[in-house]
Amino acid sequence: MRQTDVVIIGGGPAGLAAAVRLWEKGVRDILILEREHFLGGILRQCIHDGFGLTRFGETLSGPEYAGRFIDQVLEMGIPYLTDITVIDISADRKVTASSRDGILEIQAKAVALTMGCRERTRGAIGIPGQRPAGIYTAGVAQSYINLQNKMVGREAVILGSGDIGMIMARRMTLEGAHVQAVFEVQPYASGLPRNIEQCLNDYGIPLYLSHTVTDIKGAERLEAVVVSQVDECMQPVLGTEREYCCDTLILSVGLIPENELSLAAGVELDSRSKGAVVDENHQTSVSGIFAAGNVLQVHDLVDFVSMEAESLADSVVRYLEEGRLATCMLAVKTDANVTHAIPQKISGGEDFKLSLRVRRPVKNAFIRLSQNGNIILEKKMPKAIPAEMIQIPVKARKLNKESDLEVSVVW
Amino acid sequence: MVREFTCIMCPLGCGLRTETRQGERGEEILVTGNTCPKGKEYAVQELTDPQRNIATSVLVSGGELPLASVRLTHAIPKDRIFDVMGEIRKRKLTAPVKAKEIVIENVLGLGSDVIATKDIGKI
Lengths: 411, 123
What we know:
The complex is a heterodimer of chains A (411) and B (123). Chain A is an alpha/beta fold.
């Protein structure tokens, strides 16, 4: 069986950034496994700009952002395989992958989980009605239009105000389609404000909050969708139905970390983030298996994906040098106003970066970190929205090593 | 005159408010709500001459993929977006295509180049 120091599962922004950082720190025995034919992950189809402002100080398109890392991987000569799918990871870090050349088995010292996330589908949200063609998730529509040169439709309605949905509203408009409206079931948008401005407002596409699709009509191709208002409990309000004739419905209704392989390895998942439970070293509940990027938590910006993966690489270097990393004993607990927080475990003895999202929009709030009732840090948030991932650096000197860390939003 | 809009310069998405009024030296624009100087610049630009960058694709023959992604090197006036889309649509490339390659120089005389943002290898 092949022996490798670090196997990286997925050659998207997280995997590439982890590989480059490992190489820079002197680790040479690396292998990136990518299931697609090209490196770059989802960025290859994200042709719009707006990436890289934090990581590179300039705004780039998705392919350019990925290209920065791919160029480094190629220059450094970091080993990678494409067209190969990992089908199993064991708790003792045996990685099994399948390709046209057959089955590849690798014993790794460390495994980096960087598989990214998946889109929620019509089935996941259970929209009733007929099952015609013409219903796509935003990412699938993006792949058809931007990679395969196939237009998905002419008269579109978008359900969900995720960033990719809004970006596809603009993209389809530029390609000559008519986008009638974006409907969002929540009372606030789930994507970033700048995308509401530059993808919807710029093209006169209305956004309706507290609305959802309650019926789908069409025998072979989609003919119409029925949209209803929803109440505070997100239940459709009878009598508010409106029918929209369209041939295309784009769904942008959320992303879920892709953790089938993590589960196979026995990695404990967090029901809130849908990703692994990790400590301040990005190590999962299984020693030597680490996670970063969208497989760990769905990010708002790819810049933070790269930076999280770089931080993972720093920990992997220490793991390889020391043979193991000490178990972190303190839990990070959150109140009901926080959707999830990463990491879920800390030692109390190291600096770390806390990432979290708020459950609903709040104004003039504080994010409060406390241990045993003592406030150790408060971050003032003039405005906090669920669309934005909040990151707070925490210094070890402020922490004790005895008490769990409590994270709350107060106002 | 008062206008309110969202800044698009970074993901923060500040709520900008502009107030135009007659001052001693002619028309003045007062900007509030911005967190950084870029926001103020954007607000003034948005009021006087709104501009946007666009990203789309160009057909490629003989390549590993049928399309090469492109963007503009500089923002163009917002009301010329569809004119520029029309120009880009007329263009066809032959593989190989290199990222940063100029696809259309100074498109429609607007002072912005259309450049490729992706390598497309030859098959």
